[in-house]
């Protein structure tokens, strides 16, 4: 009873402290012209404004992006200083409705929309826990912790579209665990806002869950057709050019040396090694990992939940492009771990409070650059080891029977 009381105090204190901290950080950001125009949202804002004034087909024109961003920052940008809009074309119509000449108001509306996507993802993942007969108290704690998860908040503060990625992954997870494979695949198609992540999650479906893969192909194909119809031939060519420039890792704002993936880790450990060599090795590991995960899913038994957690956690490490806000995707493995926890209230609580504990750990890691880049790797590695251990235990028990 006393332990349960301590957990309750920890959860309440966590909710209050994180909420106050986030509100203070957001208030400072939105009221500081340098910080709010230095966020990634300026690229999304620029896309919406260019589409409104010049048409959607001109969104990927770097000269127009530069002109629009200069109006907000108040000084002349060098060509390589432009924070490019390198996101999917199908978001343009949404941005056209969200943004106006009021940058601050546009930022707030976009953040609220992404917060709604994140909330929908957390609610759906909570329903997955309810179906697994996880205690309601643990479900509520996990949901609140998911909403207050630090990387998820950081994505809102940075004006990113991570909420769409998280919702797509949540629908995929829920669909797989409820045998709704068409829904899982269509949800997975939303993750094409990060194509490199979408491929890691979708490829393993090809042999084990063919309906999921076909639904993903149909959904993402429809989005692709819509996108290219929106852009036209010239706009599509500019879009491809922007994607290739971003993939090279050299453009302003890409910052591969501060990414939280294997490429970023290698660049920090071997700063004198040629960046192209590191990127090439990263892409090779990426391709090999997709092949290995596809084989693991093909040979898997009934432990779909641990495979989901393992796949998402591994994807975070090996994708070629991943910043701190993309770690919001770890909400999915956290909920999977709650679902896989042994029966008993305290063991469920151990898992349910993970979002709070990890958020505080990530906050504390900012005291020094060494911890800032080390702690996230340790957290993700712990999840991988944990899911691997659960799968091994399950397989050993199955053999014993």
Detail the topology: elements first, then pairings:
Layout: H1 2-30, H2 33-37, H3 41-54, H4 62-73, H5 92-98, H6 103-131, H7 136-147, H8 150-157, H9 162-177, H10 181-188, H11 195-202, H12 205-208, H13 210-248, H14 262-269, H15 275-298, H16 304-318, H17 331-340, H18 345-352, H19 354-364, H20 369-400
Helix pairs in contact: 3-4, 3-5, 6-7, 6-9, 6-17, 7-18, 9-10, 10-13, 14-15, 15-16, 16-17, 16-20, 17-18, 19-20
Walk me through the structure.
The chain is mainly alpha-helical and 401 residues long. It has one domain (107-400). It contains 20 helices and no strands. The two termini are 36 Å apart. The mean pLDDT is 88.
Encode the helix/strand succession as letters: HHHHHHHHHHHHHHHHHHHH
Biggest sheet layout = none
Global Rg: 21 Å
Q: Poorly predicted ranges (pLDDT <50, ≥5 residues)? A: none
* Total strands: 0
Compute the number of helices: 20
**How much helix is in the residues?**
over 70%
Structural class: mainly alpha
- Alpha-carbon distance between the termini? 36 Å
| Overall tally of structural domains | 1
Mean pLDDT: 88
- Proportion of residues in β-strands: under 5%
Main features:
401 residues, mainly alpha, 75% helix, globular
Task: Compose a concise summary of this entry.
The chain is mainly alpha-helical.
């Amino acid at each position: 009873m006393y332990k349960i009381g301590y957990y309750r105090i920890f959860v309440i204190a966590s909710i209050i402290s994180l909420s106050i901290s986030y509100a203070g950080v957001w208030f400072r950001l939105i009221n500081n012209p340098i910080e709010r125009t230095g966020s990634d949202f300026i690229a999304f804002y620029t896309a919406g404004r260019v589409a409104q004034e010049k048409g959607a087909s001109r969104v990927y024109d770097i000269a127009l992006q530069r002109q629009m961003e200069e109006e907000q920052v108040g000084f002349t940008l060098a060509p390589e200083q432009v924070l490019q809009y390198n996101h999917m074309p199908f978001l343009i119509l949404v941005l056209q409705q969200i943004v106006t000449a009021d940058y601050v108001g546009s930022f707030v509306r976009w953040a609220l929309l992404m917060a709604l996507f994140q909330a929908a993802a957390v609610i759906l993942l909570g329903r997955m826990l309810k179906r697994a007969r996880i205690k309601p108290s643990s479900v509520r704690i996990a949901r609140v912790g998911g909403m207050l998860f630090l990387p998820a908040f950081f994505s809102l503060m940075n004006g990113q579209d991570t909420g769409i990625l998280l919702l797509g992954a949540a629908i995929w997870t829920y669909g797989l665990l409820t045998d709704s494979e068409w829904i899982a695949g269509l949800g997975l198609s939303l993750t094409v806002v990060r194509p490199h992540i979408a491929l890691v999650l979708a490829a393993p479906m090809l042999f084990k869950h063919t309906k999921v893969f076909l639904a993903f192909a149909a959904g993402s194909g429809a989005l692709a057709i819509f996108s290219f119809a929106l852009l036209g031939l010239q706009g599509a060519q500019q879009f491809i050019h922007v994607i290739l420039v971003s993939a090279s890792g050299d453009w302003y704002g890409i910052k591969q040396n501060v990414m939280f993936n294997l490429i970023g880790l290698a660049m920090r450990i071997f700063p004198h090694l040629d960046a192209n060599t590191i990127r090439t090795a990263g892409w090779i590991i990426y391709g090999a990992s997709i092949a290995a995960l596809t084989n693991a899913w093909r040979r898997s038994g009934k432990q779909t939940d641990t495979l989901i957690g393992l796949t998402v956690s591994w994807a975070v490490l090996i994708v070629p492009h991943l910043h701190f806000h993309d770690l919001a995707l770890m909400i999915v493995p956290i909920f999977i771990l709650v679902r896989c926890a042994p029966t008993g209230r305290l063991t469920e609580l151990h898992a349910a409070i993970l979002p709070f504990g990890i958020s505080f750990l990530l906050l504390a890691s900012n005291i020094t650059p060494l911890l800032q880049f080390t702690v996230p790797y340790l957290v993700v590695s712990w999840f991988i080891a944990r899911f691997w251990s659960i799968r091994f235990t399950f397989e050993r028990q199955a053999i014993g029977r």
